[in-house]
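Structure request: VWA domain-containing protein, Micromonospora costi.
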Amino acid sequence: MINSRRSTTVLTGLVVAFALLGPAPAVADEPTPTEPAPSEPPRVELVLDVSGSMRARDIDGRSRISVAQQAFNEVVDALPEVTQLGIRVLGATYQGEDKKVGCRDTQQIVPVGPVDRGQAKAAVATLRPTGFTPVGLALREAAKDLGTGATTRRIVLITDGEDTCAPPDPCQVARELAAQGTRLVVDTLGLAPDEKVRRQLLCIAGATGGTYTAAQSTEELTGRIKQLVERAGETYTRTPTVVGGATACDGAPMLASGVYTDRETFSEHRWYRVAVRPGQELRASVSVALDRPVNRDYGVLLRAVAPDGRELVRGADAGSGRADVVSAGLRWSDDDDSEDDDDGDNSDDSSDGDASAAAQQPRMVCIVVSNSFAPRPGTGVTPGMPIELTVDVVAASPTPRGPDLGRGWMLLALLTVAGLLTGLLTGLLTRWWVATWREK
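Returned structure:
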């Protein structure tokens, strides 16, 4: 009994000792940057080809138009409440042979705005493949439907064939819309495995910073349209700036804080430069759109590199293989430029002034975007995959440095004491349990 009381007393003392040590210091939560909410709801218009070729029954044994109608119904049902959606068709009403008349055949069957789901699905259900394919004219009219605004608007074009009514050439129309600075992005989906159609749709998407995808099944079409409609909600208050990355740090374009768009071919490295001053932090992220079939084994790497080739930090690949976009991000700040040697030597004030001025000079940091994409057989490799690069240079975060073994002996001593106490506690508990068991 005496041994039991003595053990209990020792255990109580150990518990008190641990309590006096206090909990481990918590790491301060990093501040989360907040983006200003868009001043207007996201707007997107679906443009559907209803020309005669949409009667072909080559998608899962069903006609192309029936697959598109099912996809539209599912998209309308899953539409976010805040998104304003419109639907425009082309080649849907004129059944004659007069090309001049047929090439004006485009109508908006659902106006851009909050969607009445029943009305939208009813309008799509009545569509029957009919006439010509005036893609260029439909894109111009869709841009008018969406209007202007401060945030990016999207057109999603679904077609199985190339434009049969040029002029206007749809690729030229896309270039004109991009040149107007209308904050308009056109994403294209091809329903027929035709190389000429693929090139035209790639050109339309590339001119506006959009993506191209070939949809060969009901699931692919439905999933892709849903992704694009959801992406319309991720709008920007300014249009991404087109920039061309270099093949090395020397001669790479200088970037300020902002959003940029570029294209990168398979397994390529593209370089950019950013000036970072002492006390500032570089934050960068990149997204690569999967606008064509690629092998599943891939990744995206974002690095910050010094001009002499030393790697400063690298970001983590955030892709899962099932999304239409693969992303990576990084943060870096120069935290070694403020440490001065205080040795009491003030013999040369001018040299101290020069050193202080040099310490305030911005440091050049190279950003490298790399990918390990590999195309599937038959997939075109040009133009490159669309990438979107976001750069921000802000005041360095005041997050305190956590202690580690390389910085001092305090943590090592604390770990040693904790190990000894743990061993002692385990031994005392074992002796107490044995003593209690023997008494019984």
